Protein backbone atom coordinates (compact mmCIF):
# COMPACT_ATOMS: atom_id res chain seq x y z
CA UNK A 1 0.00 0.00 0.00
CA UNK A 2 1.66 3.19 -1.12
CA UNK A 3 1.03 6.15 1.10
CA UNK A 4 2.42 9.58 0.51
CA UNK A 5 2.15 12.72 2.47
CA UNK A 6 1.80 15.44 -0.06
CA UNK A 7 0.63 19.00 -0.42
CA UNK A 8 3.47 20.03 1.74
CA UNK A 9 6.85 20.48 0.43
CA UNK A 10 8.17 17.77 2.54
CA UNK A 11 7.84 14.04 2.13
CA UNK A 12 8.59 11.33 4.63
CA UNK A 13 8.79 7.72 3.62
CA UNK A 14 8.12 5.05 6.21
CA UNK A 15 7.85 1.66 4.64
CA UNK A 16 5.40 2.69 2.00
CA UNK A 17 4.40 5.87 3.70
CA UNK A 18 5.47 9.37 2.83
CA UNK A 19 5.23 12.69 4.70
CA UNK A 20 5.22 16.05 3.03
CA UNK A 21 5.09 19.64 4.07
CA UNK A 22 2.65 22.16 2.74
CA UNK A 23 5.14 24.54 1.30
CA UNK A 24 5.99 24.23 -2.32
CA UNK A 25 9.53 23.12 -1.84
CA UNK A 26 12.02 20.42 -2.50
CA UNK A 27 11.24 16.75 -1.86
CA UNK A 28 12.62 15.28 1.36
CA UNK A 29 12.45 11.76 2.65
CA UNK A 30 11.91 11.31 6.33
CA UNK A 31 11.64 7.85 7.77
CA UNK A 32 9.18 7.38 10.57
CA UNK A 33 8.36 4.30 12.54
CA UNK A 34 4.82 5.43 13.00
CA UNK A 35 2.09 3.78 11.02
CA UNK A 36 0.60 7.12 10.03
CA UNK A 37 2.57 9.43 7.80
CA UNK A 38 2.31 13.16 8.19
CA UNK A 39 3.48 15.89 5.90
CA UNK A 40 4.83 19.23 6.84
CA UNK A 41 3.14 21.94 4.85
CA UNK A 42 5.84 24.20 3.69
CA UNK A 43 6.48 27.17 1.58
CA UNK A 44 6.44 27.28 -2.18
CA UNK A 45 9.97 26.71 -3.34
CA UNK A 46 11.54 27.70 -6.62
CA UNK A 47 13.89 24.80 -6.91
CA UNK A 48 13.46 21.11 -7.29
CA UNK A 49 15.14 19.11 -4.55
CA UNK A 50 17.10 15.98 -4.93
CA UNK A 51 14.86 12.94 -5.16
CA UNK A 52 14.47 10.93 -2.00
CA UNK A 53 13.89 13.78 0.40
CA UNK A 54 10.80 14.82 2.18
CA UNK A 55 9.06 17.95 1.02
CA UNK A 56 8.15 20.80 3.24
CA UNK A 57 5.41 23.26 2.60
CA UNK A 58 7.50 25.49 0.46
CA UNK A 59 7.22 26.01 -3.23
CA UNK A 60 10.65 26.01 -4.78
CA UNK A 61 12.18 26.49 -8.18
CA UNK A 62 14.65 24.13 -9.66
CA UNK A 63 18.16 25.42 -9.96
CA UNK A 64 20.82 23.61 -11.94
CA UNK A 65 23.20 21.70 -9.79
CA UNK A 66 24.46 18.31 -8.93
CA UNK A 67 22.16 15.67 -7.62
CA UNK A 68 23.76 13.15 -5.35
CA UNK A 69 20.75 11.41 -3.89
CA UNK A 70 19.51 8.83 -6.34
CA UNK A 71 16.64 7.55 -4.27
CA UNK A 72 13.20 8.11 -5.67
CA UNK A 73 10.52 9.60 -3.49
CA UNK A 74 7.08 8.07 -3.34
CA UNK A 75 4.19 9.84 -4.98
CA UNK A 76 5.98 13.14 -5.55
CA UNK A 77 3.05 15.30 -6.49
CA UNK A 78 4.97 18.52 -6.06
CA UNK A 79 7.29 18.03 -8.99
CA UNK A 80 5.63 20.96 -10.71
CA UNK A 81 7.99 23.43 -9.14
CA UNK A 82 7.70 22.25 -5.59
CA UNK A 83 10.57 20.82 -3.80
CA UNK A 84 10.78 19.96 -0.15
CA UNK A 85 13.21 20.18 2.67
CA UNK A 86 15.27 17.71 4.60
CA UNK A 87 14.60 14.28 5.91
CA UNK A 88 13.38 14.30 9.38
CA UNK A 89 10.93 11.69 10.41
CA UNK A 90 12.22 9.12 12.81
CA UNK A 91 10.83 7.48 15.80
CA UNK A 92 12.96 9.51 18.12
CA UNK A 93 12.42 13.12 18.89
CA UNK A 94 14.76 15.25 17.02
CA UNK A 95 17.31 17.79 18.07
CA UNK A 96 16.31 21.41 17.60
CA UNK A 97 18.13 24.44 16.45
CA UNK A 98 17.66 27.79 18.08
CA UNK A 99 18.92 31.20 17.07
CA UNK A 100 20.01 33.64 19.71
CA UNK A 101 17.52 36.41 20.23
CA UNK A 102 17.26 39.20 22.73
CA UNK A 103 14.76 38.88 25.51
CA UNK A 104 11.51 40.65 24.88
CA UNK A 105 8.90 42.02 27.22
CA UNK A 106 6.55 39.37 28.53
CA UNK A 107 3.58 41.24 27.20
CA UNK A 108 4.57 40.28 23.71
CA UNK A 109 3.47 36.70 24.19
CA UNK A 110 0.24 37.07 26.15
CA UNK A 111 -2.66 35.58 24.26
CA UNK A 112 -6.22 36.76 24.51
CA UNK A 113 -8.21 33.54 24.75
CA UNK A 114 -11.58 35.25 25.11
CA UNK A 115 -14.20 34.56 22.52
CA UNK A 116 -14.75 37.46 20.19
CA UNK A 117 -18.23 36.47 18.97
CA UNK A 118 -17.11 37.06 15.42
CA UNK A 119 -19.84 36.58 12.87
CA UNK A 120 -18.26 35.55 9.56
CA UNK A 121 -20.80 37.20 7.30
CA UNK A 122 -18.46 37.64 4.38
CA UNK A 123 -15.15 35.90 4.88
CA UNK A 124 -13.34 37.72 2.09
CA UNK A 125 -13.98 41.01 3.88
CA UNK A 126 -12.95 39.73 7.32
CA UNK A 127 -10.24 41.91 8.88
CA UNK A 128 -8.31 38.96 10.22
CA UNK A 129 -7.36 37.92 6.68
CA UNK A 130 -5.16 41.02 6.47
CA UNK A 131 -2.98 39.57 9.25
CA UNK A 132 -1.93 36.70 6.96
CA UNK A 133 1.19 37.47 4.90
CA UNK A 134 3.19 35.74 2.19
CA UNK A 135 6.74 34.63 3.00
CA UNK A 136 9.56 34.69 0.45
CA UNK A 137 12.66 32.82 1.56
CA UNK A 138 16.06 32.30 -0.03
CA UNK A 139 17.72 29.11 1.21
CA UNK A 140 21.36 28.06 1.02
CA UNK A 141 21.80 24.50 2.22
CA UNK A 142 25.15 23.07 3.32
CA UNK A 143 26.80 20.46 1.17
CA UNK A 144 27.23 17.61 3.65
CA UNK A 145 29.39 15.56 1.28
CA UNK A 146 31.71 18.55 0.77
CA UNK A 147 31.23 20.19 4.17
CA UNK A 148 33.49 23.18 3.51
CA UNK A 149 31.04 24.61 0.99
CA UNK A 150 27.34 25.24 0.41
CA UNK A 151 24.97 24.20 -2.33
CA UNK A 152 23.35 26.46 -4.92
CA UNK A 153 20.70 28.65 -3.36
CA UNK A 154 17.00 28.24 -4.05
CA UNK A 155 13.89 30.22 -3.20
CA UNK A 156 10.54 29.29 -1.71
CA UNK A 157 7.27 30.86 -0.65
CA UNK A 158 5.02 30.09 2.29
CA UNK A 159 2.62 31.80 4.67
CA UNK A 160 2.84 33.55 8.04
CA UNK A 161 0.60 35.64 10.28
CA UNK A 162 0.87 38.53 12.73
CA UNK A 163 0.72 37.90 16.48
CA UNK A 164 1.45 41.44 17.66
CA UNK A 165 4.41 43.50 18.90
CA UNK A 166 6.20 43.29 15.58
CA UNK A 167 6.19 39.47 15.48
CA UNK A 168 5.08 36.89 12.92
CA UNK A 169 4.65 33.13 13.16
CA UNK A 170 5.38 30.63 10.40
CA UNK A 171 6.69 27.06 10.07
CA UNK A 172 10.31 26.25 10.83
CA UNK A 173 10.66 24.35 7.58
CA UNK A 174 9.63 27.48 5.65
CA UNK A 175 12.82 29.25 6.74
CA UNK A 176 15.24 26.33 7.03
CA UNK A 177 18.77 27.20 5.89
CA UNK A 178 17.55 30.73 5.25
CA UNK A 179 19.87 33.44 3.98
CA UNK A 180 17.15 36.03 3.39
CA UNK A 181 13.49 36.20 4.43
CA UNK A 182 10.99 38.70 3.07
CA UNK A 183 7.28 39.12 3.70
CA UNK A 184 4.46 40.85 1.85
CA UNK A 185 1.06 41.86 3.16
CA UNK A 186 -2.22 41.16 1.44
CA UNK A 187 -3.03 43.80 -1.17
CA UNK A 188 0.46 45.33 -0.99
CA UNK A 189 3.18 45.23 -3.64
CA UNK A 190 6.11 45.92 -1.30
CA UNK A 191 8.24 43.20 0.28
CA UNK A 192 9.81 43.80 3.67
CA UNK A 193 12.87 42.11 5.15
CA UNK A 194 12.10 39.85 8.11
CA UNK A 195 14.45 38.58 10.80
CA UNK A 196 14.28 35.02 12.14
CA UNK A 197 14.28 35.23 15.94
CA UNK A 198 13.88 31.54 16.71
CA UNK A 199 13.22 28.20 15.02
CA UNK A 200 11.65 25.27 16.83
CA UNK A 201 12.51 22.33 14.61
CA UNK A 202 10.77 19.74 16.79
CA UNK A 203 7.48 21.67 16.81
CA UNK A 204 7.98 23.14 13.29
CA UNK A 205 7.40 26.75 14.36
CA UNK A 206 9.50 29.85 13.63
CA UNK A 207 9.24 33.35 15.08
CA UNK A 208 9.92 36.29 12.77
CA UNK A 209 10.13 40.04 13.28
CA UNK A 210 9.83 42.97 10.88
CA UNK A 211 11.40 46.27 11.93
CA UNK A 212 9.76 48.47 9.30
CA UNK A 213 7.00 50.57 10.87
CA UNK A 214 5.37 50.95 7.47
CA UNK A 215 4.73 47.21 7.32
CA UNK A 216 2.69 47.33 10.54
CA UNK A 217 0.53 50.33 9.69
CA UNK A 218 -3.12 49.47 10.26
CA UNK A 219 -2.26 45.86 11.15
CA UNK A 220 -4.32 43.94 13.67
CA UNK A 221 -2.72 40.81 15.13
CA UNK A 222 -4.66 37.58 15.31
CA UNK A 223 -6.27 36.40 18.53
CA UNK A 224 -5.61 32.86 19.69
CA UNK A 225 -8.48 30.55 20.54
CA UNK A 226 -8.82 27.38 22.59
CA UNK A 227 -8.36 23.83 21.42
CA UNK A 228 -11.37 23.05 19.21
CA UNK A 229 -13.80 20.16 19.55
CA UNK A 230 -14.46 17.39 17.06
CA UNK A 231 -16.56 18.52 14.09
CA UNK A 232 -15.91 22.20 14.81
CA UNK A 233 -15.67 24.23 11.61
CA UNK A 234 -12.18 25.31 10.58
CA UNK A 235 -10.93 27.71 7.90
CA UNK A 236 -7.36 27.51 6.57
CA UNK A 237 -5.88 30.69 5.09
CA UNK A 238 -2.59 31.07 3.24
CA UNK A 239 -0.77 31.48 -0.07
CA UNK A 240 -0.57 28.02 -1.68
CA UNK A 241 0.35 27.16 -5.24
CA UNK A 242 -2.15 27.95 -7.95
CA UNK A 243 -2.16 31.73 -7.68
CA UNK A 244 -0.63 34.80 -6.07
CA UNK A 245 -3.55 36.00 -3.95
CA UNK A 246 -4.72 34.72 -0.60
CA UNK A 247 -6.51 31.38 -0.52
CA UNK A 248 -9.26 30.20 1.86
CA UNK A 249 -10.38 26.58 2.34
CA UNK A 250 -12.93 25.21 4.80
CA UNK A 251 -13.45 21.96 6.64
CA UNK A 252 -14.03 20.47 10.07
CA UNK A 253 -11.90 19.09 12.90
CA UNK A 254 -11.65 15.34 12.33
CA UNK A 255 -9.35 14.21 15.14
CA UNK A 256 -7.20 15.57 17.97
CA UNK A 257 -4.34 13.42 19.22
CA UNK A 258 -0.58 13.17 19.63
CA UNK A 259 0.70 13.36 16.05
CA UNK A 260 3.99 12.62 14.34
CA UNK A 261 5.57 15.91 13.27
CA UNK A 262 7.34 15.07 10.03
CA UNK A 263 9.82 17.94 9.96
CA UNK A 264 10.98 17.54 13.54
CA UNK A 265 10.45 13.79 13.86
CA UNK A 266 8.73 14.46 17.16
CA UNK A 267 5.35 13.51 18.62
CA UNK A 268 3.24 16.42 19.81
CA UNK A 269 -0.42 17.34 20.02
CA UNK A 270 -1.92 17.89 16.57
CA UNK A 271 -5.29 18.71 15.02
CA UNK A 272 -6.40 16.69 12.01
CA UNK A 273 -8.74 18.50 9.61
CA UNK A 274 -10.32 17.77 6.24
CA UNK A 275 -9.82 21.26 4.80
CA UNK A 276 -7.52 21.35 1.78
CA UNK A 277 -3.89 22.15 2.64
CA UNK A 278 -1.52 22.60 -0.28
CA UNK A 279 2.14 23.55 -0.83
CA UNK A 280 2.46 27.16 0.23
CA UNK A 281 -0.13 26.88 3.01
CA UNK A 282 2.64 26.08 5.47
CA UNK A 283 2.79 28.64 8.24
CA UNK A 284 -0.71 29.95 7.54
CA UNK A 285 -3.34 30.15 10.32
CA UNK A 286 -6.44 28.03 10.82
CA UNK A 287 -9.51 29.85 12.18
CA UNK A 288 -12.64 28.85 14.03
CA UNK A 289 -16.07 30.42 13.45
CA UNK A 290 -15.28 33.20 15.93
CA UNK A 291 -12.35 34.41 13.83
CA UNK A 292 -9.82 33.12 16.37
CA UNK A 293 -6.65 31.36 15.31
CA UNK A 294 -6.76 27.77 16.54
CA UNK A 295 -3.46 26.67 15.01
CA UNK A 296 -0.87 26.72 12.23
CA UNK A 297 -1.18 24.61 9.07
CA UNK A 298 1.95 22.51 8.64
CA UNK A 299 1.53 19.07 7.07
CA UNK A 300 -0.77 16.72 5.18
CA UNK A 301 -1.20 12.98 4.83
CA UNK A 302 -1.60 11.39 1.40
CA UNK A 303 -2.19 7.81 0.36
CA UNK A 304 -4.12 5.89 -2.27
CA UNK A 305 -6.80 5.04 0.27
CA UNK A 306 -7.45 8.38 1.96
CA UNK A 307 -7.75 12.02 0.99
CA UNK A 308 -8.20 15.45 2.58
CA UNK A 309 -6.18 14.75 5.72
CA UNK A 310 -4.36 17.86 6.84
CA UNK A 311 -2.72 18.76 10.14
CA UNK A 312 -2.63 21.92 12.21
CA UNK A 313 -0.29 22.78 15.10
CA UNK A 314 -2.64 23.71 17.99
CA UNK A 315 -2.30 26.91 20.00
CA UNK A 316 -1.16 24.90 23.04
CA UNK A 317 2.02 23.93 21.16
CA UNK A 318 2.40 27.48 19.80
CA UNK A 319 2.06 28.92 23.31
CA UNK A 320 4.69 26.47 24.62
CA UNK A 321 7.10 27.58 21.88
CA UNK A 322 6.59 31.29 22.65
CA UNK A 323 6.87 30.86 26.42
CA UNK A 324 10.04 28.83 25.98
CA UNK A 325 11.54 31.61 23.85
CA UNK A 326 10.47 34.23 26.37
CA UNK A 327 11.90 32.35 29.35
CA UNK A 328 15.29 31.50 27.87
CA UNK A 329 15.82 34.24 25.27
CA UNK A 330 16.12 31.37 22.80
CA UNK A 331 14.21 28.23 21.97
CA UNK A 332 15.32 25.17 23.96
CA UNK A 333 12.82 22.55 22.78
CA UNK A 334 10.24 20.12 24.12
CA UNK A 335 11.49 17.78 26.84
CA UNK A 336 11.56 14.00 26.85
CA UNK A 337 11.43 11.42 29.62
CA UNK A 338 14.02 9.33 27.78
CA UNK A 339 12.54 5.88 28.31
CA UNK A 340 11.20 3.11 26.09
CA UNK A 341 7.87 1.81 27.33
CA UNK A 342 5.91 -1.37 26.71
CA UNK A 343 2.13 -1.56 27.00
CA UNK A 344 0.72 -3.80 29.74
CA UNK A 345 -2.44 -5.02 28.07
CA UNK A 346 -1.79 -8.68 28.85
CA UNK A 347 -3.18 -9.76 32.28
CA UNK A 348 -0.47 -12.39 32.77
CA UNK A 349 2.24 -9.79 32.15
CA UNK A 350 0.68 -7.46 34.72
CA UNK A 351 0.37 -10.28 37.25
CA UNK A 352 4.02 -11.27 36.75
CA UNK A 353 5.07 -7.67 37.40
CA UNK A 354 2.77 -7.55 40.49
CA UNK A 355 0.62 -4.81 39.01
CA UNK A 356 -2.77 -5.25 40.65
CA UNK A 357 -4.85 -2.87 38.53
CA UNK A 358 -5.35 -2.44 34.79
CA UNK A 359 -2.84 0.37 34.49
CA UNK A 360 0.77 1.24 33.95
CA UNK A 361 3.47 0.87 31.29
CA UNK A 362 6.67 -1.14 31.57
CA UNK A 363 10.07 0.57 31.39
CA UNK A 364 12.05 -1.41 28.81
CA UNK A 365 15.04 0.87 28.37
CA UNK A 366 16.31 4.15 29.77
CA UNK A 367 18.47 6.43 27.67
CA UNK A 368 21.94 6.90 29.23
CA UNK A 369 21.79 10.67 28.68
CA UNK A 370 18.37 11.10 30.33
CA UNK A 371 17.99 12.21 33.95
CA UNK A 372 15.58 9.28 34.34
CA UNK A 373 18.63 7.01 34.10
CA UNK A 374 19.41 7.94 37.70
CA UNK A 375 16.03 7.02 39.17
CA UNK A 376 14.34 4.51 36.85
CA UNK A 377 15.34 0.92 36.19
CA UNK A 378 14.42 -1.57 33.53
CA UNK A 379 11.41 -3.48 34.82
CA UNK A 380 9.83 -0.53 36.62
CA UNK A 381 6.15 0.08 35.88
CA UNK A 382 5.08 3.73 35.54
CA UNK A 383 1.52 4.06 36.85
CA UNK A 384 1.23 7.84 37.22
CA UNK A 385 2.75 11.09 36.01
CA UNK A 386 2.22 14.08 38.33
CA UNK A 387 -0.65 12.14 39.94
CA UNK A 388 -2.34 11.48 36.58
CA UNK A 389 -2.93 7.74 36.18
CA UNK A 390 -1.38 6.08 33.13
CA UNK A 391 -3.43 3.35 31.45
CA UNK A 392 -2.10 -0.02 30.34
CA UNK A 393 -2.16 1.19 26.71
CA UNK A 394 0.10 4.11 27.54
CA UNK A 395 -2.72 6.67 27.55
CA UNK A 396 -3.99 9.25 30.03
CA UNK A 397 -7.36 11.04 30.43
CA UNK A 398 -7.87 13.97 28.04
CA UNK A 399 -10.80 16.37 28.28
CA UNK A 400 -14.17 14.70 28.77
CA UNK A 401 -14.53 11.07 27.75
CA UNK A 402 -11.27 11.07 25.76
CA UNK A 403 -7.82 9.59 26.21
CA UNK A 404 -4.49 10.59 24.71
CA UNK A 405 -0.93 9.26 24.53
CA UNK A 406 1.04 9.47 27.78
CA UNK A 407 3.76 11.58 26.14
CA UNK A 408 1.25 14.43 25.84
CA UNK A 409 1.77 15.12 29.55
CA UNK A 410 5.52 15.27 29.04
CA UNK A 411 5.12 17.77 26.19
CA UNK A 412 3.32 20.14 28.57
CA UNK A 413 6.53 20.54 30.54
CA UNK A 414 9.52 22.76 29.75
CA UNK A 415 13.19 21.82 29.60
CA UNK A 416 14.50 21.60 33.15
CA UNK A 417 11.07 21.04 34.74
CA UNK A 418 10.64 18.30 37.32
CA UNK A 419 7.97 15.60 37.20
CA UNK A 420 6.83 13.13 39.83
CA UNK A 421 6.40 9.54 38.67
CA UNK A 422 4.46 6.87 40.50
CA UNK A 423 6.15 3.53 39.87
CA UNK A 424 5.85 -0.10 40.91
CA UNK A 425 9.23 -1.74 41.45
CA UNK A 426 9.29 -5.42 42.40
CA UNK A 427 5.70 -5.16 43.59
CA UNK A 428 6.24 -2.08 45.78
CA UNK A 429 4.75 1.32 44.97
CA UNK A 430 6.94 4.40 45.28
CA UNK A 431 7.23 7.91 43.93
CA UNK A 432 10.33 9.32 42.28
CA UNK A 433 11.17 12.70 40.80
CA UNK A 434 12.87 13.17 37.47
CA UNK A 435 14.11 16.24 35.55
CA UNK A 436 12.90 16.47 31.95
CA UNK A 437 15.20 17.68 29.18
CA UNK A 438 15.26 17.54 25.37
CA UNK A 439 16.40 14.24 23.97
CA UNK A 440 20.05 13.77 22.96
CA UNK A 441 20.47 12.18 19.54
CA UNK A 442 23.55 10.24 18.55
CA UNK A 443 22.81 11.01 14.90
CA UNK A 444 21.04 14.40 14.65
CA UNK A 445 18.17 15.03 12.27
CA UNK A 446 19.20 18.66 11.86
CA UNK A 447 22.65 20.19 12.25
CA UNK A 448 22.94 23.11 14.66
CA UNK A 449 24.67 26.15 13.25
CA UNK A 450 23.75 25.29 9.71
CA UNK A 451 27.19 24.05 8.62
CA UNK A 452 28.59 20.59 9.41
CA UNK A 453 31.90 20.12 11.19
CA UNK A 454 34.80 18.57 9.26
CA UNK A 455 38.47 17.72 9.68
CA UNK A 456 40.91 16.99 6.84
CA UNK A 457 44.05 15.01 7.68
CA UNK A 458 46.34 14.16 4.76
CA UNK A 459 43.34 14.20 2.45
CA UNK A 460 41.17 12.06 4.74
CA UNK A 461 37.89 13.95 5.25
CA UNK A 462 36.27 13.26 8.63
CA UNK A 463 32.79 14.51 9.55
CA UNK A 464 30.05 13.53 12.04
CA UNK A 465 27.28 11.27 10.75
CA UNK A 466 23.94 13.08 10.42
CA UNK A 467 20.61 12.44 8.76
CA UNK A 468 21.22 15.16 6.12
CA UNK A 469 24.48 13.44 5.19
CA UNK A 470 22.73 10.09 4.90
CA UNK A 471 20.11 11.67 2.65
CA UNK A 472 22.72 13.30 0.49
CA UNK A 473 24.92 10.24 0.14
CA UNK A 474 22.02 7.77 -0.32
CA UNK A 475 21.46 4.99 2.16
CA UNK A 476 23.03 2.45 -0.19
CA UNK A 477 26.44 4.12 -0.08
CA UNK A 478 26.43 4.41 3.71
CA UNK A 479 26.39 0.65 4.34
CA UNK A 480 23.98 -1.43 6.38
CA UNK A 481 26.11 -1.55 9.52
CA UNK A 482 26.52 2.23 9.74
CA UNK A 483 22.92 2.79 8.71
CA UNK A 484 21.71 0.49 11.49
CA UNK A 485 23.76 2.45 14.02
CA UNK A 486 22.31 5.71 12.81
CA UNK A 487 18.77 4.37 13.09
CA UNK A 488 18.87 2.49 16.37
CA UNK A 489 21.88 3.42 18.50
CA UNK A 490 21.60 5.58 21.60
CA UNK A 491 24.05 8.24 22.72
CA UNK A 492 26.01 7.11 25.78
CA UNK A 493 26.81 10.68 26.86
CA UNK A 494 26.11 14.22 25.78
CA UNK A 495 28.32 15.28 22.91
CA UNK A 496 28.90 11.78 21.54
CA UNK A 497 29.05 11.51 17.74
CA UNK A 498 29.59 8.84 15.13
CA UNK A 499 32.62 10.18 13.24
CA UNK A 500 33.06 8.83 9.73
CA UNK A 501 35.66 9.04 7.01
CA UNK A 502 33.51 10.64 4.33
CA UNK A 503 36.00 10.41 1.48
CA UNK A 504 39.72 10.51 0.66
CA UNK A 505 41.18 13.33 -1.44
CA UNK A 506 43.81 11.45 -3.42
CA UNK A 507 47.45 12.35 -2.78
CA UNK A 508 50.76 10.54 -2.56
CA UNK A 509 50.64 10.56 1.22
CA UNK A 510 47.37 8.58 1.33
CA UNK A 511 48.31 6.13 -1.41
CA UNK A 512 46.29 2.92 -1.10
CA UNK A 513 43.46 4.51 0.87
CA UNK A 514 41.78 6.41 -1.99
CA UNK A 515 38.75 4.12 -2.28
CA UNK A 516 37.71 4.43 1.35
CA UNK A 517 34.43 6.26 2.05
CA UNK A 518 31.67 6.43 4.64
CA UNK A 519 33.42 4.30 7.26
CA UNK A 520 33.27 4.92 10.99
CA UNK A 521 36.57 5.69 12.68
CA UNK A 522 36.64 4.16 16.16
CA UNK A 523 40.09 4.89 17.60
CA UNK A 524 43.09 7.14 17.07
CA UNK A 525 46.43 5.80 18.31
CA UNK A 526 44.49 3.41 20.56
CA UNK A 527 42.19 6.05 22.10
CA UNK A 528 38.43 5.73 21.61
CA UNK A 529 37.03 8.69 19.66
CA UNK A 530 34.12 10.48 21.36
CA UNK A 531 33.33 13.09 18.70
CA UNK A 532 35.01 14.99 15.90
CA UNK A 533 36.28 17.72 18.22
CA UNK A 534 37.92 15.03 20.31
CA UNK A 535 39.54 13.55 17.19
CA UNK A 536 40.93 16.96 16.22
CA UNK A 537 42.31 17.37 19.75
CA UNK A 538 43.98 13.95 19.65
CA UNK A 539 45.59 14.66 16.28
CA UNK A 540 46.81 18.10 17.34
CA UNK A 541 48.39 16.79 20.53
CA UNK A 542 49.97 13.70 18.91
CA UNK A 543 53.76 13.51 19.12
CA UNK A 544 54.14 9.99 17.77
CA UNK A 545 55.81 9.28 14.46
CA UNK A 546 52.70 7.65 13.06
CA UNK A 547 49.02 8.58 13.02
CA UNK A 548 47.05 5.33 13.40
CA UNK A 549 43.31 5.33 12.66
CA UNK A 550 41.27 2.24 13.52
CA UNK A 551 38.01 1.67 11.63
CA UNK A 552 35.25 -0.93 11.77
CA UNK A 553 36.31 -4.57 11.40
CA UNK A 554 39.87 -3.72 12.53
CA UNK A 555 40.73 -1.87 9.30
CA UNK A 556 43.83 0.30 9.83
CA UNK A 557 45.02 3.52 8.21
CA UNK A 558 48.54 4.62 9.13
CA UNK A 559 50.07 7.95 8.12
CA UNK A 560 53.46 9.45 8.89
CA UNK A 561 52.95 12.56 11.00
CA UNK A 562 55.64 14.77 9.42
CA UNK A 563 54.61 13.83 5.88
CA UNK A 564 51.00 14.57 6.78
CA UNK A 565 51.86 18.08 7.99
CA UNK A 566 53.96 18.78 4.90
CA UNK A 567 51.35 17.72 2.35
CA UNK A 568 48.27 19.35 3.92
CA UNK A 569 48.73 22.83 2.32
CA UNK A 570 49.16 21.28 -1.13
CA UNK A 571 46.03 19.13 -0.79
CA UNK A 572 43.96 22.14 0.27
CA UNK A 573 45.25 24.13 -2.69
CA UNK A 574 44.72 21.33 -5.22
CA UNK A 575 41.10 20.82 -4.16
CA UNK A 576 40.25 24.48 -3.56
CA UNK A 577 39.46 24.01 0.13
CA UNK A 578 39.79 27.12 2.33
CA UNK A 579 40.73 25.38 5.58
CA UNK A 580 41.68 21.96 6.87
CA UNK A 581 38.95 22.12 9.53
CA UNK A 582 35.67 23.84 10.25
CA UNK A 583 35.82 26.93 12.45
CA UNK A 584 34.21 25.23 15.47
CA UNK A 585 37.14 22.79 15.69
CA UNK A 586 39.55 25.69 16.22
CA UNK A 587 38.05 26.26 19.67
CA UNK A 588 39.75 24.62 22.68
CA UNK A 589 38.50 21.08 23.26
CA UNK A 590 36.51 20.44 26.45
CA UNK A 591 35.77 16.85 27.42
CA UNK A 592 31.99 16.47 27.46
CA UNK A 593 32.00 13.14 29.31
CA UNK A 594 31.54 14.18 32.94
CA UNK A 595 32.17 10.76 34.40
CA UNK A 596 35.26 9.97 32.40
CA UNK A 597 35.37 6.30 33.31
CA UNK A 598 36.60 3.73 30.85
CA UNK A 599 34.11 3.06 28.10
CA UNK A 600 34.21 -0.46 26.73
CA UNK A 601 33.76 -1.75 23.21
CA UNK A 602 30.04 -0.96 23.36
CA UNK A 603 30.95 2.70 23.18
CA UNK A 604 28.41 4.42 20.93
CA UNK A 605 26.85 1.10 20.10
CA UNK A 606 23.82 0.87 22.39
CA UNK A 607 21.44 -0.37 19.75
CA UNK A 608 17.70 -0.72 19.72
CA UNK A 609 16.33 -3.84 18.09
CA UNK A 610 14.18 -3.82 14.98
CA UNK A 611 11.35 -5.22 17.09
CA UNK A 612 11.51 -2.25 19.43
CA UNK A 613 11.42 0.18 16.54
CA UNK A 614 8.60 -1.42 14.60
CA UNK A 615 6.31 -2.92 17.25
CA UNK A 616 3.33 -0.79 18.20
CA UNK A 617 3.42 -2.06 21.79
CA UNK A 618 6.69 -0.22 22.44
CA UNK A 619 6.83 3.54 22.74
CA UNK A 620 9.55 6.15 23.23
CA UNK A 621 8.61 9.03 25.53
Automatic annotation (TrEMBL):
Region (Disordered): 50-88
Basic and acidic residues bias: start-end ranges: 66-75
Keyword Protein biosynthesis assigned: no
Keywords: Hydrolase, Protease, Serine protease
GO BP terms in the entry: proteolysis
Residue ranges occupied by any Protease Do-like PDZ domain in the UniProt entry: 443-584
Keyword Transmembrane helix: no
Matching CDD domains: cpPDZ_Deg_HtrA-like
GO terms for MF: serine-type endopeptidase activity
Similarity comment: Belongs to the peptidase S1C family.
Identification of the protein by name: Protease Do-like 2, chloroplastic
Annotated source species: Populus euphratica (Euphrates poplar)
Gene transcribed to yield this protein: LOC105132048
